[in-house]
Design brief:
This protein has about 260 residues and is an alpha/beta fold. The protein has one domain: SGNH hydrolase (Rossmann fold, 3-Layer(aba) Sandwich). It contains 10 helices and 7 strands. The strands form 2 sheets. A 5-stranded parallel sheet has the order 4-3-5-6-7, with helices on both faces. Helix 3 packs across helix 9. The chain is globular, with a radius of gyration of 20 Å.
């Protein structure tokens, strides 16, 4: 997938308002990539087979088996360039780092990156069927920032996000909603309604909410790339911690042990 981004001569600001402006400008500056023809997936390699006529190699000591990728419940990170990880190596994006943290915590989930730079809520809605085709158990929804920068009507943005959430829930998918913020120069009324939109959607649909995905990262020069917009690998590490605050309670609640207890109750 080819991702193109325009570069802006920006000065890193250390205030929340200035940072929000940089983030939103950076998100808009990235043109959306062509939507892939197939859902996000990780294909496990086939098991190695011994050469014909040769004895089988000795069986290694028993250990906890690692399930094949297609057998693991899936978490889809669904968003724009902040999810895609523009400017960092694939293994340093927040979804990739989230995978490492979940593995270390003993969680069985497979994290898939469905981020597309420059995407809007309308674009996300258009590729929702592609996301659903991957049969996710959980979706972390991070969209709407580009809508805000373009000054799109909040009624339309809310409608797109609402439809995405409803269709995901109808498919039995647990949604975790990530909120975004706008710079103050968009006007107090618009910015306050924009931020409230995420809170209200989370309340209406009873969703876990990440109030601001970049909390603690915004405005910190050492945690952002040279453009002052997108996080560095270390910045994304902190983003993962923000995500885990809302994600882990959901995963623990949906653990096989608790599911079995509910069925037997």
């Amino acid at each position: 997938m080819k991702i193109r981004s325009d570069h802006f001569p920006l000065t890193v600001c250390l205030t929340t308002g200035c940072f929000a402006a940089l983030v939103i400008i950076g998100l808009l500056g990235c043109d959306p990539s062509t939507t892939p023809a197939s859902p996000p997936s990780t294909t496990a390699g086939s098991r190695p087979q011994p050469a014909s006529g040769k004895p089988h190699p000795p069986t290694p000591p028993a250990s906890k088996p690692t399930p094949y990728a297609e057998d693991r419940p899936k978490i889809v990170a669904f968003g724009d360039s902040l999810t895609a990880g523009l400017g960092v190596a694939p293994d340093q994006t927040y979804p990739a780092q989230l995978q490492k943290r979940l593995d270390a915590l003993g969680q069985p989930y497979l994290v898939l990156n469905a981020g597309v730079s420059g995407d809007t809520s309308a674009g996300g809605l258009r590729r929702l069927s592609w996301v659903l085709a991957g049969n996710p158990r959980v979706v972390i929804l991070e969209l709407g920032g580009n809508d805000g920068l373009r000054g799109l009507g909040l009624v339309d943005t809310r409608s797109h996000l609402d439809t995405i959430i409803r269709q995901l829930k109808q498919a039995g998918v647990q949604v975790i909603l990530a909120g975004m913020k706008l710079p103050p120069n968009y006007g107090e009324e618009y910015t306050s309604k924009f931020e409230a939109m995420y809170i209200e959607l989370a309340q209406v649909h009873s969703l876990p909410l990440i109030p601001f995905l970049l909390e603690g990262v915004g405005g910190e020069k050492s945690l952002n790339q040279a453009d002052g917009i997108h996080p560095t690998a270390e910045g994304y590490r902190m983003v993962v911690e923000n995500v885990l605050k809302s994600l882990l309670p959901v995963l623990n609640e949906r653990s096989p042990a608790k599911t079995d207890m509910k069925k037997s109750a």
